[in-house]
Write a structure and sequence with these properties.
Distance between the termini: 70 Å
Structural class: mainly alpha
Radius of gyration: 35 Å
Order of helices and strands: HHH
Oligomer: single chain
Number of strands: 0
Number of domains: 3
Shape: elongated
């Protein structure tokens, strides 16, 4: 009897190598029996072009909406400033104070919950 036949580590190594060989044979068989399908390059290019078109359309729409809202806000601000300065200053104060109060109250609620 060889000294390796009673060694548990040697038996584990042999078993591991047997398992690895079986896995390799099974994977090789799977590679040979299952065809690999690679999509056509034109299909990928079409998908990329379509996605770029969608992104460009969405970007232009978002930019147009942004400019429209900005123009509206500036028009209202200018009109209030020139026609009713008191209303303009009141609006500016509300725009600054309300979010600050909301943030402070939210922090107090969060600190009480913890």
């Amino acid at each position: 009897m060889s000294p390796d036949s009673h060694n548990p580590k040697s038996e584990d190594k042999n078993e591991l190598s047997t398992v690895i060989e079986e896995l390799e044979r099974g994977l090789t068989h799977l590679d040979q029996t299952t065809p690999a399908f690679t999509p056509n390059l034109a299909w990928f290019e079409q998908q990329v072009a379509e996605e770029k078109r969608k992104l460009r359309t969405r970007l232009f729409r978002d930019l147009a909406l942004f400019w429209l809202i900005a123009l509206l806000a500036l028009t209202i601000s200018y009109t209030l400033l020139t026609q009713q300065p008191t209303a303009f200053l009141t609006l500016q104060a509300v725009i600054v104070i309300v979010p600050m109060v909301w943030i402070i109250l939210k922090k107090q609620v969060t600190s009480h919950e913890e």
